[in-house]
Write a structure and sequence with these properties.
about 180 residues; four-stranded antiparallel sheet; three-stranded antiparallel sheet; 7 strands
Length: about 180
């Protein structure tokens, strides 16, 4: 190695050593003493200061007798359930087993012909298979089966809107071929 390379290495080591000794903090002992004092003091909970809250007189709610804003007006309730009209459901009719499920939850698994009439087999989300015929009800929207073919069930649902009242809409279930 040449002498100028050796001198450069020695100068570099010396500069690095001086830089590292410059990082030493002369007040490090004072910091250690402060931390020891903090560790030796008892650790009690700080005193909580609760601000003063003024007392206000009780107020009477003025709208307690008014209609709840979360319920439809009485005229809408009457037309929805009292005077159902030609498209409204029969409120006196007992609910059938498949009316607990929405149509999206039910699956048509097959159809058969019995006594000259088609019978459809519907699988519920609970794994039960229920036989239905034309005229039976299913779905949560008062759906009534109007026709059963070999691959499909046609249903007429009854839905209520505030603008139009009770309306019928078509729906169907088809056999899903899972091959």
């Amino acid at each position: 190695m040449t002498s100028w390379v050796r001198r450069g290495l020695v100068a570099g080591w010396l500069a690095g050593f001086l830089l590292l000794t410059g990082c030493a903090d002369p007040a490090l002992s004072q910091l250690e003493a402060t931390l020891d004092d903090i560790r030796q003091t008892s650790s009690s909970e700080p005193v909580m200061v609760i601000p003063y809250v003024p007392l206000y007189p009780a107020q009477r709610y003025q709208h307690s007798e008014a209609r709840s804003p979360f319920l439809p007006p009485q005229s809408t309730q009457d037309s929805a359930y009292g005077a159902a009209g030609e498209n409204g459901p029969d409120p006196q009719r007992p609910a059938e087993p498949l009316e607990r499920f929405s149509l999206q939850e039910l699956q048509l698994v097959g159809t058969i012909r019995m006594d000259g009439r088609r019978v459809a087999m519907i699988a519920t989300p609970e794994g039960e298979v229920v036989n239905v015929r034309e005229g039976h009800y299913m779905g949560t929207n008062y759906g009534r089966i109007v026709a059963i073919s070999a691959q499909e069930i046609e249903i007429r649902e009854r839905v209520y809107t505030q603008q139009n009242g009770w309306q019928t809409r078509p729906a169907s279930l088809t056999i899903v071929d899972e091959r």
